[in-house]
Amino acid sequence: xxxxxxxxxxxxxxxxxxxxxxxxxxxxxxxxxxxxxxxxxxxxxxxxxxxxxxxxxxxxxxxxxxxxxxxxxxxxxxxxxxxxxxxxxxxxxxxxxxxxxxxxxxxxxxxxxxxxxxxxxxxxxxxxxxxxxxxxxxxxxxxxxxxxxxxxxxxxxxxxxxxxxxxxxxxxxxxxxxxxxxxxxxxxxxxxxxxxxxxxxxxxxxxxxxxxxxxxxxxxxxxxxxxxxxxxxxxxxxxxxxxxxxxxxxxxxxxxxxxxxxxxxxxxxxxxxxxxxxxxxxxxxxxxxxxxxxxxxxxxxxxxxxxxxxxxxxxxxxxxxxxxxxxxxxxxxxxxxxxxxxxxxxxxxxxxxxxxxxxxxxxxxxxxxxxx
Length: 372
Prior knowledge:
This protein has 372 residues and is α/β, with parallel strands linked by helices. The protein has 13 helices and 13 strands.
């Protein structure tokens, strides 16, 4: 069986990139499937995570971003030409590879694939909630949402990461499955001992992640625990400039780090992980940190954290986006090293649900179902 993954590029140090590359590697190395990936905007960008030599990569060498060199009608004309070329080259690539199933993790690529794939089954692997499939606001958001939803109805299967998101997609189409993310877990025998007075956040500086709430929580916590430090890993995103300035003015033991490929070692140096997202299709950093023995605290946002955390056992869920309740829970953990260690130990065990060896056989069964 041949499986083709289509994406714009594998170039960002992000959760989606890590997950998809690990999935491709596992299917090629352990399930012995023919695994291919087509990109159109890879260029000279190196893969952010190691790609197995058994996975075959092809780039179509189309730079859609070049349309932004122009304005007005010239921009629209150039965009049209690039999109036509993309569909043409994608069709040739699919005809050459002859995949049995195509998987796409980005909703904005579905339209191109539908025009190029013929009768091959297409899976949309949703890494964003249906409620937030458009980044735009107002009327434009509604138009984009309607357009994307009309495309999604034409795919053979939507794979959601959580039951909550699956319920939203089922309002649109019955062809929905739930398969949790494969998570890059700590596979060593070393874990955090939860003694360091370090707290972590890992992720983008974006509206979705609601760093503003994180800073308000930390402002409360820091006044109670002056000897603790908050480490932010990632730092990129549309709110980066404004947040950097706000953090600089706070002077409250906050250190910003660039994204790192060695994040597991950073988890092990920490004692608590915080997640304040407005919504999360899954929340990869939660089981990653849990696998390192780090207790996690997260808002109970739609839809990921509640699927991952058993409140009070392997982490803590904060209801109603209460800043005060969140700060109190973090303070409780800071005050009680034994509690940190007990919750962290429970997290190590529960995170094993997301090992590739448990998740990828489910994917293989889905591929077989769609091709029989």
